[in-house]
Write a structure and sequence with these properties.
single chain; 234 residues; alpha/beta; 6-stranded parallel β-sheet; two-stranded parallel ribbon; 47% helix
């Protein structure tokens, strides 16, 4: 009798663990994202979204803003509250340039490691901090690492925020990434509706990674224009 009970308990624990972790696969598994109702793409016929995570950054953010200005492009910056407190003027500059400011959390922490209460408190602090510095805030949310927890997803939606992931990324936070690899990966088979993920900061990634991102950005924006697409904020 003991073995069947152990097997049943093990199977139940495994199933519960899989259910808890399943949202974490959404960034790399489109079917899971669809099942959770978390978009990775836009509905526009001729638009793409350029998005940045992890900022603001004293060097990376100005470099991104300059490239966007030169190309006449718009972007959405998913900011981290603790960095906004360090660089509030940069946050205001992003908004003043006409770009969208959205929430990436107050601290850059994996939602699977947070209790629902801890995440709810982090989210509220992020909304207050980022909104106050920017003077405006989009009702869009992207979690650190793109990882949702079931409770976190419910809390985000209950707060009136729309979750958003991405359809294309350049893995620009990695040490071995280069401007060429970032631009190539982001723009290969680029199409309408794509959401592009970049990072204008290296607070939570390889030191100096923003340099290659900034170098890749003009080419990325040029490829968007060459494809007959326009940028859209989210």
């Amino acid at each position: 009798m003991r073995r069947p009970l152990i097997a049943t308990a093990t199977a139940t624990a495994t199933a519960l663990g899989a259910a808890w972790a399943a949202p974490a696969l959404a960034p790399i598994a489109a079917p899971i994202a669809r099942a959770l109702g978390v978009p990775r793409r836009l509905d526009g016929l001729d638009t793409v979204a350029v998005t940045f995570d992890d900022g603001p950054h004293p060097e990376g953010t100005p470099a991104a803003l300059e490239a966007l200005r030169d190309a006449g492009a718009s972007a959405t910056f998913f900011l981290v509250g603790e960095q906004v407190e360090r660089y509030p003027a940069l946050t205001a500059e992003i908004a003043a340039a006409g770009h969208a400011v959205a929430v990436h959390g107050y601290r850059h922490r994996n939602l699977l490691r947070l209790t629902p209460r801890a995440f709810s408190e982090d989210l509220e602090r992020a909304i207050e901090t980022i909104g106050a510095a920017a003077g405006q805030l989009r009702h869009t949310y992207r979690p650190p690492y793109g990882i949702f927890s079931p409770a976190g997803l419910r809390i985000v939606r209950a707060r009136g925020l729309a979750p958003l992931l991405w359809s294309r990324w350049g893995h620009d936070w990695r040490r071995r990434a280069s401007a060429d690899s970032i631009a190539t990966e982001l723009t290969r088979d680029l199409g309408a509706g794509d959401v592009l993920l970049l990072h204008d900061a290296d607070h939570y990634s390889s030191a100096g990674s923003w340099i290659d991102t900034a170098a890749a950005l003009p080419r990325v924006l040029g490829e968007i224009e060459a494809a007959g697409l326009v940028t859209q904020t989210v």
